[in-house]
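Fold this sequence, please.
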Amino acid sequence: MKKTFLCLIILFSFSCSFAQNKPTFSVVGNETNKESLLKSKRLDISKIKVENISNKPIYLVWETVSNTFPKEWDCSMCQHGACQIGIPKGSAFSKLNADQQGFIAIHVIPANKTGTGIVKFKIYDKENPDYAKILTFEVEVF
C-alpha cells in the first residue's frame, strides 16, 4: 500500500512538472521584424503578435534582453495593455484569455540620425518561465 501510494505521488508530481513546461503561447508569424526607413521619416509601428494557445487565461511577462538603438533615436514601445516612453527593462501584459492575441510593438523617430539598431525582448508566461521566446526588432535608418 505504501509503495503504491508513493508511486502515485511520484507520478503525479512528474505529470505536474511536465504540464508546466507545455507552451501556453505562440508567436503569430515571425519572431523577428526587420524595418528600413529614411532618416527624415518615422517608424510608426512595428508589431509582433503572440497568442494564448492554452485553455485558460495567462499573464505574459517580458524583459529587454538587449538594445542597440542609437541614443539619438526617440523610441517608445507598447505591449498588450500599455505603452511606455523609451524601451523599459521589462513589464507584463494585461491578462490574455484563451485564444486571445497580444503584442509587443516599437515606435522609432530617428531625428535625422542614420544607423542600425536591434532590440530583443524575452517573453514568457509568468506561470511557466522555462518556456520563453525572443522577439527581435531590427531597424535600419538611412
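The beta strands are 25-28, 32-37, 43-52, 60-67, 74-79, 82-85, 90-92, 101-109, 115-125, 128-141. The longest strand covers residues 128-141.
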